[in-house]
Amino acid sequence: MKKRILTAAIAIPIVLWLVIGSPFYVFGFACALAAAITAYEYFGFTGHRGLLVLLCLFLAVFTMSFGIHFGMAVWVASAFICVALGMMRADGIEGYLAATARYSFAFLYIGIGYSAIIVLREHGYEFLLAMMLSVWAADTFAYFGGKLLGRHPMSPKISPNKTLEGLAFGIAGATITYSVVMAFFPVAFLIHPAFIGLAVGAISVVGDLVESALKRSADVKDSGSILAGHGGMFDRMDSMIFTAPLYLILIILLMANVSQ
Q: Which of 89, 109, 217 is nearest to 158 (CA)?
């Protein structure tokens, strides 16, 4: 627990500075680096790691900070290169389909997730800050709510310790947190911010389950150990990168409607 608290005490101020005060390209570089680390841990589940593949993913995410059109062009090119490299490394023809799925999933989940975080920051740090705090709140409320009142397992085969009671606490925590954070910013939505917070909380739980399923299939407890007391980068960012693309779409639609 001491390691967990110490890591959080060091990491949280750095993350907040990156989100609120850092130059945009520095933020993009940090996201790209986190994406490469996350991908390294993900490929560790299957034993297929490669420096060139990680570099492709790094470039795909980092170039999003140079503009979405240029970034998407590099992103698509990098994804195709990555998948092609994965097929070349496959063990025979029978492994081509599995390799294609493995590397495509990395770009869809990790690549799009971190790219969406960069685009959210470009729209305004308040949107990203509200999402991040809400996802953290959902995780924290779900953990303590499940510990205190958890009785009914949510998904026993994937994550036996997660409960429906914890899920309810997590969504409630995200809803409250998002509403409180957005109350400090002059942003108008078509709907009440609480509904967006509710969606963020629900989606983040699914993201957590996706990574839990990957870890269970690989028979590992944590994706890594880079964050002392917290596991790996993937363990900390699973819900965030799963939520970010869907949240970005929701924000764009709502803001577009308001501006009309």
A: 217
pLDDT (tens, 9 = 90+) of the chain, 260 residues, equals 667 778 778 888 999 999 999 999 999 999 999 999 999 999 888 766 677 788 889 999 999 999 888 988 998 898 888 888 777 766 666 667 777 888 888 888 999 999 999 999 999 999 999 999 999 999 999 989 988 887 888 888 888 888 999 999 999 999 999 999 999 998 888 888 999 999 999 999 999 898 888 888 887 887 877 876 677 898 889 999 999 999 999 998 887 554 44
Cβ atoms < 10 Å from Cβ of 144: 15
At residue 192, the 3 state secondary structure works out as: coil
Residue extents of the structural domains in the chain: 1-106, 124-260
Phi-psi region of 124 (alpha: psi -120 to 50; beta: other; left: phi over 0): left
Phi, psi (deg, nearest 5) at residue 163: -125, 165
**Phi and psi, residue 52, nearest 5°:** -65, -40
pTM for the whole thing? 0.91
CA–CA separation, 68 vs 74, rounded Å? 10
Please name the residues in contact with 146: beta carbons below 8 A apart, sequence gap of 6 or more: 161, 162, 163, 165, 166, 169
Q: Is the dihedral of CA 225, 230, 234, 237 positive or negative?
A: negative
Q: DSSP label at 147? A: H
Provide φ and ψ at 188, rounded to 5°: -105, 130
Please give the structure tokens belonging to residue 49.
């790691």
Tokens standing for 31? 């996201």
